[in-house]
User: Which sequence fits this backbone?
């Protein structure tokens, strides 16, 4: 079973789809507030359902901090995922408001990981995703063995092309305590923003 890891389903856009998903033991639901994403939640005029969801994460990419704060307050978010080049000061200002910070870092090869200066003080969690010019949602996976090359003093979310075909490869990560959460998106979709319930059901029957 997946009880070793938390599960986050990211990029939801539809209330009916969410209602089907919430029957499963999903720990976090991610909603994207990046207008260049095909999963931009505000493209759906009927997005008010997200306000009542408790275990949710708001995802931003280089957004103005005042806009972020307005959205977090309007929709009752307590977790934020920063998926761009947000500074330590930016993160601290959100953390001072009692917001939990998931800071994303993009990786394609080992050199990318070596060059990352991780925000240990202001981030509560790290997130590692495939490095693409679209800031995620590419459906591509980096070599997870790269993560064995560096020590992480915080738990992290693992993202980027996770699928039913490759999710067992997470066992190549030696430090089993650090991958805190598996962040699932495009490989568990019928179309952008609409999650494939059959694949989600299969996921929760895997023995990892």
Assistant:
């Amino acid at each position: 079973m997946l009880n070793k890891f938390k599960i986050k389903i990211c990029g939801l856009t539809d209330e009916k789809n969410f209602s089907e998903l919430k029957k499963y033991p999903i720990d976090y639901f991610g909603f994207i507030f990046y207008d260049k994403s095909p999963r931009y939640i505000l493209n759906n005029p009927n997005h008010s359902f997200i306000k009542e969801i408790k275990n949710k994460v708001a995802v931003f990419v280089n957004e103005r901090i005042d806009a972020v704060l307005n959205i977090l307050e309007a929709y009752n978010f307590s977790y934020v995922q920063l998926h761009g080049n947000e500074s330590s000061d930016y993160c601290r200002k959100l953390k001072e408001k009692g917001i939990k910070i998931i800071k994303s870092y993009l990786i394609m090869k080992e050199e990318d990981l070596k060059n990352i200066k991780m925000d240990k003080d202001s981030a509560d969690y790290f997130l590692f995703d495939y490095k693409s010019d679209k800031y995620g949602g590419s459906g591509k996976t980096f070599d997870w063995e790269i993560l064995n090359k560096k020590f992480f003093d915080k738990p992290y979310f693992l993202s980027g092309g996770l699928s039913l075909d490759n999710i067992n490869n997470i066992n190549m990560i030696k430090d089993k305590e650090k991958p805190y959460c598996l962040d699932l998106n495009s490989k568990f979709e019928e179309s952008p923003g609409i999650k494939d319930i059959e694949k989600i059901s299969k996921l929760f029957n895997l023995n990892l």
The beta strands are 6-10, 28-32, 56-60, 79-82, 100-107, 125-130, 156-158, 179-184, 189-191, 194-195. Residues 7 and 26 are 5 Å apart (CA to CA).
